[in-house]
Amino acid sequence: MTVLASALNTADPEYREHREAMLAKLAALDTEHAKALAGGGEKYVERHRGRGKLLARERVELLLDPDTPFLELSPLAAWGSDYTVGASLVTGIGVVEGVECLITANDPTVRGGASNPWSLRKALRANDIALANRLPVISLVESGGADLPSQKEIFIPGGAVFRDLTRLSAAGIPTIAVVFGNSTAGGAYVPGMSDHTIMVRERAKVFLGGPPLVKMATGEESDDESLGGAEMHARVSGLADHFAVDERDALRQARRVVARLNHRKAHADPGPAVPPKYDEDELLGIVPGDLRTPFDPREVVARIVDASDFDEFKPLYGTSLTTGWATLHGYPVGILANARGVLFSEESQKAAQFIQLANQRDIPLLFLHNTTGYMVGKEYEQGGIIKHGAMMINAVSNSRVPHLSVLMGASYGAGHYGMCGRAYDPRFLFAWPSAKSAVMGPQQLAGVLSIVARQSAAAKGRPYDDEADAALRAMVERQIESESLPMFLSGRLYDDGVIDPRDTRTVLGLCLSAIHTAPYEGARGGFGVFRM
């Protein structure tokens, strides 16, 4: 029998303590998500509604097939910055006429939907996801272009948005623009470079330069409609492929365009999805508040994989890393999950072999993070921890099967790299509210700085100020702690979202479904040199 047995005791005081701590983190997360949902605030939302317009998420909802999920991506973008949480853009994956699509929607209640540096990063991340997974892109457009005060951070890199649209089209991935309002200056190239363009009567305004700019540049008098209105583009310029009488009609027409795309998945339908044996609600109490306390990742695996059925690989070797095979919503997956935080040489070699096997079998990999990094110390350096850690990172880097990552607890140092952190291009990466990620833990980092400072003072023959040292250590610990929290990292788009642990199986199932739209094949070699 390969069904995982659970040792979790939900009546244990420690479990209850962990659960309460997680619920508190989720409440704080809900508060931040509410800021993104609020857009530009009540004043600007009411002004937008007063013009008879739908909000960005209402447009998305009407576009999607009824009663289907929408996996919103990067909802906390710009958190902790000077810009509105959400970065005036909604992105995510949803089903339209039975086709999984990557959807972006400008939020015109936030500075007219103008793009700031975080909007740009969010849009580029969405394009990367669409290209990697061959998802049609639907852009719900209403934006005044770049947020001019921050143009120095947008103009040069911003051209990649238009480049991506043409590359998607060249790769045979459909792109559709639905224009509800302003799409001006550089923003005019979104409908201009999309395969299909729909414009709303008396609402859409698509031009490189509006009437004031035209007057300044050429002396010509013009108005919005004759210069860039939907009817002009439908009848005269030919930029509009479809002319909609209102927003709902535009969304109806967008659905019809998708229905005629003949866009199909590259893989056969998955097998049957059997729910786990254990309650997903129990995921709330597994991760300790103090991430230095280990927990058994099998308890997590048992609550996310089909039938809690898990064939473990090398269970008696390298026991700080759990590896094995399962299915999730009918899709086969190989799982690597940190058990006790530290990665030793045995774990590294075990991981490299397991990744090679997944590539031989064309099986996607799921990385469940709770690692403080690779082990340090004279014994481990002499035992080859560098070359063995490099072997694991080499395998992750050159693996060609799709990767998914979930940060459950700690994800520090090179362990973050070996477990397929953001820099290693996982198809999707999500974090739990309990996760933390940095070069090392706050106490360790502050301690290292203290030791170096003491050694420097001793080398120069100077006395060391212990009081100043304590203050410095406390300040550094606070800084690193705040910068390693999931909302801070998500605000910088180092993940695709912070999720409720209870939603993990659903989120991963949606991601696996999207992944299987594109063909893939594992590496049969080409891993580079493994130091033995």
Automatic annotation (TrEMBL):
Domain CoA carboxyltransferase N-terminal per the UniProt entry, residue ranges: 22-273
Record GO terms (molecular function): ligase activity
Signal peptide from the UniProt entry: none
InterPro entries: AcCoA_carboxyl_beta, ClpP/crotonase-like_dom_sf, COA_CT_C, COA_CT_N, MCCB/AccD1-like
Pfam families, sorted: Carboxyl_trans
PROSITE patterns noted in UniProt: COA_CT_CTER (PS50989), COA_CT_NTER (PS50980)
UniProt domain CoA carboxyltransferase C-terminal: residue ranges: 275-514
Top-level taxon: Bacteria
Protein name per its UniProtKB record: Acetyl-CoA carboxylase carboxyltransferase subunit
Species this protein is from: Streptomyces pilosus
